[in-house]
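sry for the spam today, last one i promise. struct tokens for design, 142 residues
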């Protein structure tokens, strides 16, 4: 298994605080897949407004975290180093549960298609083994 800490992740993808939404990569294979984690703290800035009485991580940020994990898989390929992976589309997205402070979110994105600079990833976010978000993410390398 190949691990990446936060500094190694920052060498691959351009995201920075407060928009870097993954804490570490547990395993990855360039061009194939990546598995990462987000450790959700009550101190996350978005909880101040989403929602003050019942803090829930916004679904769009979960999808973004999945995309960032997919970007690690794609941008760790030698030919893509230093490039950016942009969103090209989100399909088949389903929200099946909430992410709340204290959750350790497992983020897995498998690259299922790639032709030239465009590709598709199959992404699943889970907490304690239960899927909370699933989606098919299209990306473009720029």
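last one done:
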């Amino acid at each position: 298994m190949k691990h990446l800490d936060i500094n190694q992740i920052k060498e691959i993808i351009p995201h920075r605080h407060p928009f870097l939404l993954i804490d570490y990569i547990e395993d990855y294979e360039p061009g194939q897949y990546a598995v990462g984690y987000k450790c959700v703290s009550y101190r996350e800035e978005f909880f101040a407004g989403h929602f003050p009485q019942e803090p829930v991580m916004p679904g769009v940020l979960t999808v973004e975290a999945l995309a960032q994990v997919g970007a690690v898989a794609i941008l760790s390929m030698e030919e893509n180093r230093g490039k950016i992976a942009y969103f090209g589309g989100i399909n088949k997205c389903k929200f099946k549960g909430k992410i709340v402070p204290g959750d350790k979110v497992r983020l897995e994105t498998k690259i299922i298609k790639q032709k030239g600079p465009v590709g598709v990833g199959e992404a699943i976010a889970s907490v304690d083994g239960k899927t909370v978000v699933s989606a098919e993410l299209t990306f473009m390398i720029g």
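The helical segments are 6-12, 59-75. ok im logging off now
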